[in-house]
Design goal:
The structure is a homodimer. By secondary structure, the first copy, chain A, is α/β, with parallel strands linked by helices. Chain A has 12 helices and 12 strands. In chain A, helix 2 crosses helix 3.
Amino acid sequence: MADKSVTLSDIAKRLNVSTVTVSKALRGHPDISIQTTKVIKELADEMGYSPNFMARNLSARKSQMIGLVVPKIAHFFFGSIIESIYDIAFKNNYEIILTVSQENAEREKKHIQTLLSMRVDGIIVSISQETNDYEIFDTVRKRDIPLVFIDRIPQISNINTVSVDDRGGAYKAISHAIKLGYRNIGHFAGYPEINIGKQRYLGFEDAMNHHGVPINPDWVLHGGFGEKYGYEAFMQLYKNNNLPDLIFTVTYPVALGVYMAAREVNLSIPDDIDVICFGNAKVQNFLSPQLSCVDQPTEQIANKSMEILLQNIKSPDEFEHRNIQIDTDLILRGTCINFNKK
Amino acid sequence: MADKSVTLSDIAKRLNVSTVTVSKALRGHPDISIQTTKVIKELADEMGYSPNFMARNLSARKSQMIGLVVPKIAHFFFGSIIESIYDIAFKNNYEIILTVSQENAEREKKHIQTLLSMRVDGIIVSISQETNDYEIFDTVRKRDIPLVFIDRIPQISNINTVSVDDRGGAYKAISHAIKLGYRNIGHFAGYPEINIGKQRYLGFEDAMNHHGVPINPDWVLHGGFGEKYGYEAFMQLYKNNNLPDLIFTVTYPVALGVYMAAREVNLSIPDDIDVICFGNAKVQNFLSPQLSCVDQPTEQIANKSMEILLQNIKSPDEFEHRNIQIDTDLILRGTCINFNKK
DNA sequence: CTGAAAGCGCTAACAT
DNA sequence: ATGTTAGCGCTTTCAG
């Protein structure tokens, strides 16, 4: 692997100056005369010089890199957040090192170690479904690496978090449904161990209690966050001939599973069974009927988390940890807009 | 920013040995006695040592990093490919540096320069819609950095490419439709400048010609690859009262736009207007009717491109560039399965 | 089996 | 305005 890379000293030799002069000139340091700077820059261009990131960072003791750990990529929610974070990083002259845990706790840990090895200036993480050992995050903190958790948040104190107001969002959805006239409301709830599962369930509970509507435990099912689970949960209730009028799902893929199952057994949404979900995605506009949901403002999550991280990186001393809850909006489309049960 | 990082020499001092010994021990070098190795490893663990990637790579002159440049992330096709590439990289002990051009040529160029600066061992890129200046790729090649293009491929020779057999796939879809009985077939074709646009159009043309079905130029529209364009193209034909029986769209988002427009003007798919598209995504199963398509095997694209890249990295000398075309399959769901026009 | 020396490419501090 | 020195943390010779 012939390393054809041009180095500072290659340039320096050709010009009979020192590497320092070249280094400074290339970075536009005022020490160097305009004339020299110009000559150096031109030659560097001509020779195809590109600074060695590693060397530069090693010497400068910072990397201009931010680590990002997410459970999934090919998923609308995370995809959008990632994209926004990349945008912000780009504007602030940071590189993002994105790693994907694939919902695997061990892999997550390894990735974080790698990020530490890379000496990233900060880390943003959304933990995997499996994660229950938080030791690695302690390690990160001991190293004084700014750390922000987004969306999926571990149960530790004194950390930076940016999350959606899951509880409030679920409350909004259910309150809306109750006002419409719904009483028989089910909830496909994911896992209660994961904070989104728990919080969304609590919001559901809040609303039911608040409006004096009893919760039927048969209609509250736990299991997962994907299509498959939505499909199965629906089928289970269907087979028991015990379907509520409305199902509130913990994520939109779960709702997709419900759509699928309903179509299979020839039940019409929203007439026979109505649906509303937590989480927005473009897809929902293309369903029939279009799916109503609680919107998670991904861009705001990205903005806030980067804002906090960057601030923490810039002034680590006067920084106090922050916990941000992003408000949600109800997006009403073709479901959960009428109470039209016989 | 107190850098709390433990270094080799920190460990060395505590043990009264040299850094070299520690370095070797930590890497399991046979030079060092088992006993010493054990002691060193234990202390390293205890002190929370994590090797400095930059220093290691600087010294080793390679990075164990692979650069990846894609136009988009929050898009099923790229999301899937990225995810697969991450998996393969992980298994092979490489880190992926993912960059996103956002379909912007300038940004793409910048990203590639950054990757060069990072001294990645190889680069995989899918070019942006705008890219027409290929100079930067020449730079990469001059530096002897292995380079593989996937899906969106520039018009240069002697490069590694992994692409879907777009032309053959389009041919399959249209042939199938013609066999069903369709004659009035339209094509929403994206941009012909981009190779996927061009190749898919050619496949369409091949099939029409081959089966002796005339192409109606009014029904072949160019413009884009997204929902918006599908919507607009459909509306244009609709307003002119000049709709074909079947529309073949260059991507699935374009088909989504068609679904949207059709619903808006109360035309039923597939009875009033039938649709088939290039490109698969989970969404399609949740549409009514479920959308048929030409499948692009993302996992195979990821596998092949990584295989080629890794091989090129490992034995740069006996390596000859390769051009892989991945075969497609027709996935028939609820559209384009009957010719049921009045 | 262990260590001293040199260098990867760059930059900050301190001369000149 | 330019250069010298030293060092970032690690690894690869090469000697002992």
